[in-house]
Specification:
There is one protein chain. By secondary structure, the chain is mainly alpha-helical. The protein is built from two helices and no strands. Keywords: Membrane, Transmembrane, Transmembrane helix. This is Movement protein.
């Protein structure tokens, strides 16, 4: 029984003529990737800075409350007002 030949020319040429291609260039993907990474690290940096400032305010508040007790014990804590 003879086998049928597939028409490779028709499949490879006509089927893809009008189809839009969404090929990304390496430059475009690297720029977008760097922008996404920069945005993520920027928000992480801002979040970390806010977290450190919150810890600073918490520690200063605790030292103000514990100040008289620490002076009685013998530890002098000076906070600039």
């Amino acid at each position: 029984m003879p086998t049928r030949r597939k028409n490779h020319c028709l499949r490879n040429s006509n089927a893809r003529i009008n189809r839009p291609t969404y090929r990304r260039t390496e430059e475009w993907t690297s720029v977008v990737g760097l922008f996404v990474l920069a945005t993520i690290f920027f928000f992480l940096f801002i979040t970390f800075a806010i977290f450190l400032y919150w810890i600073y305010l918490f520690v200063i508040g605790q030292l103000k409350e514990l100040g008289p007790f620490l002076e009685r014990v013998g530890i002098l804590v000076r906070i600039n007002k």
